[in-house]
Sequence to fold (250 residues):
Amino acid sequence: VNAARGVAMQVNEKVSAFCTNFQMALNPQITKSYAANDLKRMHSLVYASSKYSFFMLLLLSLPIMIEAPSILHYWLGVVPDHTVWFVRLIFMILMVDATANPLTVGAQANGNIKVYQIIVGSILLLIVPISYVALKMGCIPEGVFIVHLSVVILAQCARIYMVRNMIQLTVGEYIQKVVVKIGLVVVTAIILPLLLHSHLQPGFVSMVLVCLVSMISVMVCVYVLGLNTSERLKVNGKVCTIKNRIFSQE
Fold:
């Protein structure tokens, strides 16, 4: 079990580093907007950072989660028991945690974070005793990660509830602009890769094909369902700029 967890954590570290670098670029802007009392811009940055962080992790994680058995087999040869679901559950935890960072930065910008840290920290500490009790009762090893996922979701709900007064964030607006968008993208993007995965024979070619389709599916669903009109216009502008540079070099 420890070997399986070690493998899962290695995969987690490689993927999470990518998201952390992106968030580090936006965090100072969130703090600066609060200091300038520009709460509207701050809220938009919190929404954008939460949403984009999740989407980037989904882009990287979905292919691995679907094709975890094949990827781990080609990487390790002999895959320790429980590794596949450890990897999948850790990615789910990582994606929830990615949406938490912008809210935490917003709370830190407010400065009055003692109660916030005590409550959120206490909720997260519940992972240890609940996992212990679950294992004592005969729970499978994956149960520890299910407990972890459940607790981080609970902690995220607590963050949203507490931050609403600290930075005048509207819970309904956060749900509409972040949670609903994320839910639509996940539910839609996963359909085609799962259908393809279930109908193809396991092998290297099918693994590559499913991974490519997964990434394309996520990008299309993010563009159509995950972005608002102004965000799509910005993406179109970036694509046109890159295309013009390529053609100008030719």
Remarks:
- The chain has eleven helices and no strands.
- The two ends are 54 Å apart (CA to CA).
- The chain has a mean pLDDT of 87.
- The first helix runs from residue 2 to 35.
